[in-house]
Amino acid sequence: MRAARLALQSVGVYQLYGGEYCTYQESQRFYSYRRDGVTGRMASLIWLS
Predict the structure, then answer these.
(1) What range does the domain containing 31 cover?
(2) In-domain check, residue 23
(3) Three-state SS for 33?
(4) Does residue 9 form part of some domain?
(5) In angstroms, rounded to a whole number, what is the distance separating the alpha carbons of residues 2 and 6?
(6) Residue 15's closest CA among 49, 43, 39?
(7) Contact 1, 19 (CB under 8 A)
(8) Is-contact 23 31, C-beta < 8 A?
(9) What span, in angstroms and rounded, lies between the C-alpha atoms of 33 and 24?
(10) pLDDT at 11
C-alpha cells in the first residue's frame, strides 16, 4: 500500500484515508485470489473534489 500512496503523492494527491487493511493477510475480512486461488468481487470508492 505504501507504493500506491507514494504514486498518488507524486501526482499531487496528499489527503488519503483508508488503506490500512491487507486483503492477503486478513482472511476473515477479505477474499484473496493470491492467497486462496478462488476469485471473488470487491468494490472501492475514490472521491476527488
Answers:
(1) 2-36
(2) yes
(3) helix
(4) yes
(5) 6
(6) 49
(7) yes
(8) yes
(9) 8
(10) 97
Residue 21 within any structural domain of the chain: yes
C-alpha distances out from residue 30 to 13, 15, 21, 26, 41, Å: 26, 25, 9, 6, 10
Nine-digit cell string for 21: 487493511
* Range 14-23 contact pairs with CB under 8 angstroms and sequence separation of 24 or more: none
* pLDDT tens digits along 11-39: 999 998 887 888 899 999 998 999 999 98
- In sign, the C-alpha dihedral spanning 35, 25, 18, 7 is negative
Alpha carbon 9 to chain centroid distance? 15
With beta carbons less than 8 A apart as the criterion, state whether 24 and 35 touch. yes
Report how far Cα 24 is from the mean position of its chain's Cα atoms: 11
Residue with the three cell numbers 484515508: 17
